[in-house]
Every structure is written in structure tokens, then in C-alpha cells.
Amino acid sequence: MLELSTPIKFVKRVGERVAVELAKRGVETVEDLLYHLPFRYEDRLNPVPMSALQAGTTASVIGEVRGSVLLQTRHMPLFEMTVGQGLNTVKAMWFRGSYLRDKFHVGQMVALYGKLEPSRSSAGKFKMIQPQFEILPAHGGPDAEFSMLEVGRIVPVYESLGGTTVWGAKLGSKWLRRVIWGLFEELGVEEIKADSSAALRNDKQKNEQPQERSTEAKQERGHEAFTETLPGALRKRLKLPGRLEALKAVHFPEAGTPMTELMSAATPAHRRLIFEELFYLELGLELKRRRMREREGTAFVTNVKVREAIKQVLPFHPTAAQKRVLGEIANDMRRPQPMRRLLQGDVGSGKTIVAMQAALVAIENGCQAALMAPTEILATQHYLSARKLLGDVLSPRTGRPYRVTLLTGSLDEAAKREARGRIFRGETDLAIGTHALIEDKVDFDNLGLVIVDEQHRFGVQQRFRLMKKPGALDPDVLVMTATPIPRTLALTLYGDLDASVIDELPPGRTPIVTRRTTEERAEDVWEFVRKQVVAGRQAYIVYPVIEGAKDDQPELDFARDDEVEEASALSVAAGKKTADSSAALRNDKKRAGTPKVKGGRASVKTEKLFEPKKALRAAADMYEELRVGPLAGLRLGLLHGRLSADDKEVAMRRFQRGDIDVLIATTVIEVGVDVSNASVMVIEHAERFGLAQMHQLRGRVGRGAAKSYCILMTGGKVSEQAECRLDAMVRTQNGFELAELDLQQRGPGEFFGTRQAGLPEFRVANLIRDRAVLELAKAEAERFAESPDPAVSREERDAVWARLKQQWQRKYGLVEA
Ligand code: ADP
Ligand code: MG
User: Fold this and answer.
1) Cβ-Cβ contacts under 8 Å for 104 (sequence gap 6 or more)
2) Which of 216, 539, 665, 723 could link 639 by a cystine bridge, Cβ 3.0 to 4.6 Å?
């Protein structure tokens, strides 16, 4: 008998050869196939009549083939087909459509899906360019037995499991419907609502004797015992349908299911599957949190002496938000369990001083602290400000000055060895360095606190992989990020951390004036920069790439989905056969964050990115141009990722000291750089930058009291999405607002850039769409872990934990901290 774990090759219509193909797409068992869900539906039960079609909409149209012709145009063959319904007709066209000539013949019933455009030759008529099509089974034809799957119902449409390979056409929607329908039949799954499903029952079931039906029902209940994944009481309380019924309703929706609910994955069946997925994720995170609370860390004391030590180094009055957040951190540090806290605060909100205060708590308790930064520039900057802050004061505990050690890759070997030695022997209180360096090679004498700055630059996976002495206590960990993380992402990616937010900027900051302009008006911009420099200020000018025509590498990963979409639209227009995939699907998949699609997109992205490179203004070239041209006479510096570490540091220090007026740079300066005299940020090719990036860049100015400016210069075509980003930048400086928009535009997989690892992959859930369900799942997971619900049987509880254990590693691959 078929079970969910049955290997796919034993399924009817699959077999060995196809199973090999399916395995390449991660489909190995019956269960895997059942979770290959439709990405859209066509209402072929109540199709829109041709007389009611509307221009500009995407619609599915059913009709009869009236005629077709293969035209030889100047560029390519064009296949044109007329599909009719009574007196109405629609014309469908496919470029390079020669392959379609023998597919269609007059009288066939077909379903077309695509965008309706008004016909130019005959008023009131429509055409569809490159629609997706399906030939519907004919009465008495070879496929007649499947006609109930293709017509007269809401029909599921799937991404082909053959992808773009030769299997693409075979393993598409038609095949999937048949195989999956067959699976449900063998599994004996009923519809969710017995009554309204009657219309959909096939004849076999109708003829069944009442007695047989009840055995079937019993069988199904038997099934439930090993296919259901949520406790009955929980399902009942939340009104969630059973798992297999939900799967069936998602694949083969009952007549009457609202199309809008189906298309937005909002049916009870969808919700059930989404909930299940998110529930297990949140349960796993909750478990991690609980385990962490069982570990042994240092219980720091924060007595008057410690507080005195902190106070004496403070260069200014902390904001209320800074105070509150430090309170939260100190609370954690006092506890004997290790702290795992995420500190979010917009650029310039003053996270560094909070981190220093936390470090002092550890140090005044006789422990060491480590501060890790993503780049050398930032590590060095932290080192300099720590020295400034702590350099002249004495520790009340030891009566000696604080000892701060810098450890970066650009130090020579002897210096590195020396630094490591001091850390190892406990002759350092605060070690500051790049992440990689501290993580891999440093042995601490007595490490009490680890601070990770700008965490989003590192993979989530490698968060706490710090060298620990055997038997040593777990250090407290404070993770800081300036990328405001939308709550859905925070709940998933960082669900195992407690969170603090600095939601207030230090006083005296004036809002940054943000303006848009174009390359044509560059002269005005340079003039403005010049004026600011004359007034004693400094400026940044940022470019997307380092060098122009010969450049093959952008400084960072630009996630510009608009370009990708344009590219895919182009490939469709060029007549590439795209089976069942569509831009809509790609969008959906992207949001779900599946890596296989990511790979595909990346290549499109690369192509598009480098094709128009000649027109791109680049940092190194513009440095030369501006130096002898519009900005001649000013002191210019150049900073980009390909400089040696030393050169980078020199450039940065000179800018910090004010020896450079204008720093021409790539996005290497995006993170953390703090020069309060800089008042102008010019971003060239702003249309190319992601929102989060632009927001970070803008955060480099407005750090002092002087009025600051951010000038977004566009050069070249500005897509609709880029337009939307630029508008948002001008409209708001609220990082969270921008982050939400960024997440919507790019999807969770891209939100942090491709460097981010560790985002869970979802089969059903979509973090942007399913926020409400996520919140519910989190609450329910906490409740489930907290107190045994008497309505949930012991077996059910055990089953949930067992399932979690089995899934956690495989599915989310989140490491154990
Ligand atoms: P970020 O959160 O982006 O890391 P920083 O910690 O670099 O921000 O702080 C930005 C600037 O604001 C720094 O120059 C810092 O000295 C200053 N600053 C931080 N907190 C305050 C405060 N409470 N009052 C005045 N200036 C502050
Ligand atoms: Mg910072």
C-alpha cells in the first residue's frame, strides 16, 4: 500500500527513469510530490466568457481552435491561431512557433492563459502574445478519462518538475495532475467538506455502497494516525483541516472555492499547510531558546562600582532608548544563563557606545570581551574609538588603564602572534578585530562577552562559532545590526534570540535632505559638493562598480529584481519555450527562497549586469575624471574593495582626519564608517542600488550637527521598481519602513544580499504573505513547549517532538548553537 514515505518510483506513471529526474528536484517520496503545490489555478468551471474579457488583464480563456497559420515574418516565424467561442474569437500568437504547427487542429478545445491585448486590426477583439496553452481532452479521445481533471473544475497549474530539461514538457501540469490525483485516490483521501464535494466525486465513488464508504472512512482515520502532524486539539481550536485533506484541497480545490483565496494561498487548506510549516520552525527555535537557557554562562554583577566605571567613560548623555537597551542587556548579563541578544538600531542610532558599556560590564567583572566587525576598516575604527573612550581612564577594579588589542589581517605575522598571545594570556581586556580572525584562531583566557557588529554581513549559520576552552562557561553574545530587520525575518532568522531595538536617534540630528537628480545635471551636483567642501565639510561619492569597461565585478551583490524580470520577459518575447514557468512563478519561488531558482536567477542577473557596463560610471574612472575636471583643486581620495588592506586603511584614516575632502568609493563604505564631518553623500547610478544599501549609505552622513544631504543620481534607464525605491528614499528615513519595502521587492532570500546564509526554505509558507500565520505559529509553538495541554495526548506530543527532531536538521539546516 502507498504511504507518504514510499519512494516515488513505485507511484503509477512514474517509474525508475522519471524518478531519477524527480530526485534532481528534491522529489523522492510520495510526500515530496504531494508538497509540490500548484502556483496558480485556472477556473475552468466558471471560465470568463470571451464576450466579457478585458484588455490588460491576465486571463484564462477556453475555446475551440478555429484555424491557424504559420507566418514567415522578416525576423522569425510567427504562429497565429484563432480560438473561438460562439461568435467571439481571440487570436493567440507565438514567435518562433513552428513547433506548434502540428500540435493544434481545428475543433480542438484549448485553454489559453496570458495577457489580453486589444487587437490592432479589429476593434473589440483581443490577442494574446505567447500565452500558455493546454489542449483539453476530447470526448472519447485517448485522454477522455482525465477530462474531469482538466475541464469543468478549478484546475491546478504547476511548475514543471522537468525544469528546462527535455523532461520539462512531460513533467508539467498535465502529468502532475494525473499522478497526484492518482495518489489521492490510492491514499483514499476525502474532500474536506463531504457535502459540497459531492459534485466532484467521480462515478466510481457515487456507485459505492454505503457499507464500503464507511470502511473507507475508517481507513482514512487509520491513515490520520501516521499522516497527521498536528495534535487534534490544536487543529480543532484553530479550525485547521487535516493534513491530507488540506493537501488534496490545495491540489484539487472544490467547486466554489473562491479564486482570490486560492491565488493568495488563503484557503483554510493553504492556511493549514502554512501553519504546520511555520509551527515546526517556531517550535524548533523555541527549543533552541530553551536549551540555551539551560546552558551555563557567567552571572555578571552590575553593582555601583561597575556602574561608576561605565559612567566615567560616557562622552555624552545616552538617549532614553540607549538606556533602555543597556538595561535589557545588563539584565541578561546578570543571569547565569548565557545571553543571546540581537540589538537592532538604525544607522547612527548609537549602538557602539552601548556595546562598549556592555564590554565594560564584562571587563569590570574580570572577564575579557571581544568585538568583531565585518571589515578591517570597521574593526580599526572601533579600535580607535575604543582607545579614545577607554584610553585615559583607569579601571576602578584594577586601578590600571583598560587594555585594548586590535587584531586584523593586515597586521604582520609577528604583530598578530603578539596580539593573540596577549589575548591568550589575559593581558587584554577588549579584543577588537575582524570576524574571521577572532573566530578561527584566537584562544581567550577568560572570555565573557562576544559582540558581533553588523551581523547581517555574516552568514547566520556561523554566528557563534567561537573558539571555546573545554569546560569554560558559555560567553554572552550580543549581535548588532543596522539593517532593520522586518519582524517576519526577525522571527525566523533570529527567532532564537531576544531582541532589543534602539528606536531613537541621538539629539541634535537634523534630518538628511534627500534629493533625486540625473547624470545630466551632474555639474550642479559637483558644484554643490564644492560649496560644501569650501564650507568645511566632507563628501562621499559612491559608485556601483570599481572600474568601467574592463570591470567584471561589482563591488557587492546587487539584487535588482526588476532587471531580472525584464530579462525574463525578453526571453519569453524571443520565443523561448517556457513550459509552465512564468514570471509569476519565478516571483513566488523567489519569495519562498528556493536555492535552485536562486541559482537560475543569479545567472540572468549576471548577464544583465555586465551587458551595459560600458555606460556605467565607475569609481576608479570617475576619481580620475573628477580630480582633473569638476572637482579639481579639492583633495580627493579613492576607496574600493580591490585596494590592499593597508591602502584602504590609509584612505579611510585620511578621510577621518580631514586630509581628504571627497572620498570616491564603492559600497565598501556602506557599513559602519563614522565620520561626523561628512555632510554629503552622492550616490551615482542610484537606480542600481537596493534600498537597504542606499539607506546604509545615506546613514554615513548626518552624523554630526551640520545639515546633511543625500543626492541620488540616476544614469540610464530607471525601472519601475527602482523608481519606487528612489521615491521611498526621498519620502522617508525610517529604516524599518524601508526594510519592509525592500523585503517586499526582493523577497527574504535576497533581503540581506546573497551573502546571507541560513534562511530556512519553505515548501508552502511565504514570509511576506504569511506574517499573520507566522505570529500565530510562534504563539502556538511557545504554548506547546511551555505547558502540556491536557487535551493533547502523550502520543501526539511525542509525535510532534519526534517530527521536529527529524525535520529540523534536514529542512532548516539551522545549526545548534
Ligand atoms: P551606529 O548605531 O550606526 O553604530 P554609532 O554608534 O556609530 O552608530 O553612533 C553614531 C554617532 O552618534 C557617533 O558619532 C556617536 O559618537 C554618536 N552618539 C551616539 N550616541 C549618542 C548620544 N547619546 N548623544 C550624542 N551622540 C551620540
Ligand atoms: Mg555601528
Assistant:
1) 65, 68, 81, 110, 135
2) 665
The ligand 1 atom at the shortest distance from the C-alpha of residue 352 is: 6
Q: What average pLDDT score do residues 294-298 get?
A: 86
Q: Which residue has the higher pLDDT, 101 or 368?
A: 368
* Rounded Cα–Cα distance for residues 389 and 307 (Å): 16
CA distance 45 to 63: 13
Residue with cell 576607496: 639
Q: Quick one: which of 243, 775, 252 has its CA closest to 262? A: 252
- The predicted model scores a pTM of 0.70
Ramachandran bin of 169, using left for φ above 0, alpha for ψ from -120 to 50, beta for the remaining angles: alpha
Per-range mean pLDDT, top range of 92-101, 136-145, 263-272, 664-673: 263-272
Spell out which residues line ligand 1, taking CB within 6 angstroms: 316-319, 322, 345, 347-353, 482, 506, 674, 676, 703
Nearest CA to ligand 1 atom 15: 350
Please give the Cα distance from 689 to 35 (Å, whole number): 36
Q: pLDDT (tens digit, 9 = 90+) per residue, 127-178?
A: 999 998 888 888 777 777 788 888 888 999 999 998 778 887 889 899 999 9
Would you put residue 505 in left (φ > 0), alpha (ψ -120 to 50) or beta? beta
| pLDDT at residue 586, rounded to an integer | 35
Using most ligand atoms within 8 A of CB, pick from 313, 316, 456 the residue to mutate for ligand 1. Answer: 316
* C-alpha 514 to ligand 1 mean position (Å): 21
Q: Tell which one of 311, 349, 352 to mutate to probe ligand 1, the residue whose CB is within 8 A of the most ligand atoms.
A: 352
Beta-strand pair 132-135/109-118:
antiparallel
- Using the structure block, give the residue that is written with the C-alpha cell 568609493: 665
- Do residues 437 and 407 lie in contact, with contact meaning Cβ atoms separated by under 8 Å? yes
Per residue in 203-236, pLDDT (tens digit) is 334 444 444 444 444 444 455 556 788 999 999 9
Order of strands, sheet of 538-542, starting from the edge strand that comes earlier in the sequence: 513-518, 709-714, 678-684, 538-542, 662-665, 636-639
290 alpha carbon – ligand 2 mean position (Å): 30
